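[audit] Reproducing an earlier prediction to check determinism. Same input, same settings, fresh worker. If the tokens differ from the archived copy the diff job will pick it up downstream; this log only records the rerun itself.
[audit] input (255 residues):
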Amino acid sequence: MSSMRNALPRRNHAERAQPTERSKWGLLEKHKDYALRAADYRAKKARLRTLRSKAANRNPDEFYFGMMSARMSAKEGVRLGDRGNKVLSQETARLLKTQDAGYLRLAGQKVRREVEGLEGGFLFRTKEGRVDVCGEEDEERERGGVGWKKVVFVGSREEQKLRAVGLVESEKGRGQEGDEEEEEEEEREEDREQRKITRAWERRKSKLDAARQRQKQVEAAERELELQRARMAKHPSVGGVNKWGVKWKVRERKR
């Protein structure tokens, strides 16, 4: 009878899945998963308890053979352990520093291009506190007392001066013909545009300062790395300071 029952097809009962609203928490944890996780947690907890008791009851004056080969730090008096790192040969270390120098050169080129791009379209402040596209002030603009309503990019200084003169004259004529309300509206619009340009100027200046600082750091690191590689060469071309603090230099050939 039992053989006949086993011969009949049986339905495979699937485990309960995670509800749709809790799908972000992953698969639904079953009791067998919890049992394994709890057993692992209890084993780790017991191991930590044993280690704490051993550390609390340890005698610091007791001798053990590891003291014979242990190295101590002269300044802090701390035991220096072996981390298992292999000591590289001088040629291997110099080759690795060559790769580092290549990376620094690549990073330096990237930062230099960034600085050049920021300096190319940079906005400069004028004495009146306004922002100009170019670094020079126009006498016609100062006499007219009118600022730019928008940023205009030109190809040369002469074109900039001619455009500035035309804008100043048109602004004068418009002010004489218009009434006071239109003038106030124009001034408010001009101030809003100027504030926008000023904020853009400040953001660009902060980016440029940060890029210049990164460029200085990369160049300093590159110089230091080149100096280290020169000292590590088979025939060093520069001097230095040894581990005892004594300065030495390469003996130059007599001429």
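[audit] rerun output stored. Observation attached for the diff report: Helices lie at 2-7, 31-56, 66-69, 90-120, 139-144, 157-177, 180-231.
[audit] end
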